[in-house]
Automatic annotation (TrEMBL), chain A:
GO terms for cellular component: cytoplasm. Involved in pyrimidine base degradation. Catalyzes physiologically the reduction of uracil to 5,6-dihydrouracil (DHU) by using NADH as a specific cosubstrate. It also catalyzes the reverse reaction and the reduction of thymine to 5,6-dihydrothymine (DHT). Its EC number is 1.3.1.1, 1.3.98.1. It comes from Peribacillus deserti. The keyword Oxidoreductase applies. It comes from the Bacteria. GO terms for molecular function: dihydroorotate dehydrogenase (fumarate) activity; dihydropyrimidine dehydrogenase (NAD+) activity; iron-sulfur cluster binding; metal ion binding. This is Dihydrothymine dehydrogenase. The keyword Oxidoreductase applies. Pathway: Pyrimidine metabolism; UMP biosynthesis via de novo pathway. Belongs to the dihydroorotate dehydrogenase family. Type 1 subfamily. The lineage of its organism: Bacteria, Bacillati, Bacillota, Bacilli, Bacillales.
From TrEMBL, chain B:
This is Uncharacterized protein. It comes from the Bacteria.
Amino acid sequence: MADLSINLAGIKSPNPFWLASAPPTNSGYQVQRAFEAGWGGAVWKTLGDPILNVSSRFAAINFNGQRVAGFNNIELITDRPLDVNLKEIYETKKRFPNHAIIASLMVEPKQEKWHEIVKRVEDVGVDGLELNFGCPHGMAERGMGSASGQVPSLVEKQTYWVKEAAKTPVIVKLTPNITDITVTAEAAVNGGADAISMINTINSLMGVDLDTWNTIPHVAGKGAHGGYCGPAVKPIALNMVAECARNPRISVPISGIGGISNWQDAVEFILMGAAGVQVCTAAMHHGFRIVEDMIEGLDHYLDSKNISAVSELIGKSVPRYSDWGNLDLHYNITAQINTDVCINCNKCHIACEDTSHQCIDMIKGDNGRSYLKVREEDCVGCNLCAIVCPVEGAITMVEQTSMQPMTWNERQAALNSSK
Amino acid sequence: MSEHEQYLAEKEKIDQLLSEGYNIYHAVENLDGAFVEFFHLKSGTKKTLHIRTANARKYFSSIFIQQKSS
Amino acid sequence: MVTIKTQRISITDLERNFEEADRGFTNQEALEESNRCLFCYDAPCIKACPTGIDIPSFIKKIASGNLLGSAKTIMSSNPVGASCARVCPTEELCEGSCVLNHSTSPIQIGKLQRYATDWAIKNEQTLFKAGTPNGKTAAVIGGGPAGLSAARELARFGFRVTIYEAAEKAGGLNTYGIVSFRLPQSISFWEVEQVQKLNVRILTNTMAGRDVSAEELLHSYDYIVLAAGMAHVPDLRIEGEELKGVYDAIEFVKATKSGKLSRDFAGKRVAVIGAGNTAIDGATCSVRLGAENVKILYRRSVEEMTAYDFEYEFAKQDGVEFRWLTAPKRIIGDAEGQVAGIECVQMALGDPGEDGRRSPAEVEGSEFTLPVDAVIKAIGQTRHLPLIEAFGLQHEYGVVTADKETFQTSNPKIFACGDILFGKGKGDAMVVTAAQQGKLAAYAIHKQAQTAGTAK
Ligand SMILES: Cc1cc2nc3c(=O)[nH]c(=O)nc-3n(C[C@H](O)[C@H](O)[C@H](O)COP(=O)(O)OP(=O)(O)OC[C@H]3O[C@@H](n4cnc5c(N)ncnc54)[C@H](O)[C@@H]3O)c2cc1C
Ligand SMILES: Cc1cc2nc3c(=O)[nH]c(=O)nc-3n(C[C@H](O)[C@H](O)[C@H](O)COP(=O)(O)O)c2cc1C
Ligand code: SF4
């Protein structure tokens, strides 16, 4: 068994799987059930001045019958008084001393407010703090959450105030509702953050009911934008993690969040630079028990790769993530169709014919059987056919011999130097 | 003519000039593609090729980089 | 096709036995199955459907929640698409050609088709409109799948169409011949109604050749579509055929679809002669009427049986026994003239005959007697010879001769389609082929009417 424990900026947990600050971590009862199920840590549902919630809070997008491809909510932070939460944190920590409990915090952007809450949560023995600069709805209208997370100077200043008071590691949770997340990440680092986490939810409107014309979800016939998460946001989150990880000015550990549903997703985030991951939607969809496979799957994966500790995986793919200008323009792959496996649905043909480069021919063989063939010289290696193909192994993208590598940047440098 | 055949035709023109002893010394790129200027050192003659296809534009620039490094 | 989840025959509640056995897809099942469809380009299922339904389209419309569009897509290609969803041998047709046969499992096209058409039925949708009148008239003889299909298409082209139907209700074998636990009458009636809504007049209880003569029809209409199907089951030509308790399978099935179910079969032993679709239906109906033991006697072997695999499975699940290579020699009666037994003889298969099937021959001295209370004859159907001859049409042993593409008969005004064209070795008699032929006959008539119109 590989060593799955992590140490994220000084916060230790038996495995890299934490529950993100959200309904699953609302109470001591839930977090204790989660730890029993195997979760390595939990970021407590965001603490702050207790709020009031509305009824009808979540909605999900179902894609082609697949439920919860994406998830959205208009829920706010905890609606329970701080002392109730603190008592439960204390009890949970006492029962599970080796699991990580991180307090997520959100208060108005005032120094004394931050000092007060930091002191009170640290007194009950949390392992770290996560500053919620991310919630895009409700709290943002009051100047908190993403409203302050979108302003680099506010991120830096508030992080600084927290660090003035904090004894435990401080994680800054970033909002994705921003053009370039590395800017706010850098602000957090400048404010003294020990780590950053991302992403919080993305501004979204889940849908409109075709019969009532109400928004989805709606509250008595009215709706407001919510925060989007779940499998659909994973690529967005993964990119943001990777962009921060490869940025030399953002030198702190990253806690990866966003659409992580299984161990494979988690490995991808870790390879792209996350030192641990947080999960919300997948747990809300299936319950805490999903962590069993996450742990086992990760363990088996590490064993199969002869890697003894998950920490060795961190950031292994980061050097492979670069700018477009550094990609080799001569790298050449073309599609090849294995007619033994192909079931002749012709989806690749029509996709290429109508929307790519018209290079998959439908051919009738001498025996009257139809088959598909790629005209390799016209194939640009876009992958579309392989993407739409429903059968594993029917289409392979094959590397072709090509010229010496040449990137766009190299090419432009050469051409410009001739001017 | 397929895109690939256009590329082959353009590549052939480039290769022809190269085999005649021309070198690329300059290229201007604009909305219509690349105008690649060749120079024959011995005779001092200049020739310009209008290169349109993406693959030929990759091709000539690789040749250009090769020529510069050698 | 039919898949049975819980196979239970009630001995007391016979009515329940005749309710549709398959419960159809739930919304959830339909959504999941429709999303599994790959939406193939140039899809093989479309070609495998005799009526050429755009199957990927109707399935995608189920997935998108456009059920009206889905039902229209189905019914526009196949005027009896709701019945076909239930009775087509789909594993030989659309589902058999699904590309997913080569990877996972084929899309359950029949059940999806049923789901969409059921929606239209439940929501009382009218799917099509009559065309602008073109001033032409057509008489359709027979209101079965072929006749309805031809009538619907002709009405859409603007013909004034009258259907002459001998039975009390239209729908043909869909109404009276295919057992109600596979095809409830209500489905067939809905399809009839859809055709009626295009101002098609349906004269029931009106038999051509009896209630209205061939000459009169030829005189009164511009075109005639002959879609009278086939007739009753032929005689076995053995001793005892006249005994009480000997039934024509089609009449027997018809009785189960016409009002009160008979209690006379409860606890009885039934022998069914033949092994085609009709024999299966006769046998499963017997079981569902409470018969204690039902045997199918077939003079050839399981290989030559013309019933579909799914029908065979269905019958076996109903507890029907199969006696292969068994031919009836004589039906034995008791003192009251009631069937008491059947004397059979063992058969052996010889060389393949003209139709490719091996012909059976008696094994000498192998006679044996089975005690039975009823005998159901299901050895095919006879032809409507008098009717065909009244119209003076060319035919071969009662199979009307018609052009393969236009379905025009030896009389240019008369087109024929459906079972009336069905002959040995010419594929299967199926609802779906009858529907397609009806459509094609209508197209040919429309084309002819148009050219005739311009020539004037
Ligand atoms: C028991 C049984 C089970 C079957 N099961 C299946 C199955 O599962 N799947 C499948 O695809 N096919 C099945 N078939 C075959 C299918 O029913 C026929 O191929 C189809 O009904 C043929 O349609 P049709 O319109 O040509 O004839 P029919 O359905 O026979 O309709 C002919 C109509 O013409 C009427 N008629 C006849 N003579 C006259 C007249 N002189 N004047 C006016 N009207 C007249 C009749 O009353 C009838 O309504 C089955 C057949 C039988 C007998
Ligand atoms: C219903 C709901 C409530 C949430 N509440 C909070 C919150 O109070 N504080 C916070 O930092 N993030 C909150 N989040 C965001 C999650 O912690 C997490 O960042 C986001 O859901 C992305 O992860 P996922 O794709 O695994 O769900 C909430 C998310 C959901 C779905
Ligand atoms: S899950 Fe359903 S029942 Fe439970 S709190 Fe939410 S809305 Fe209410």
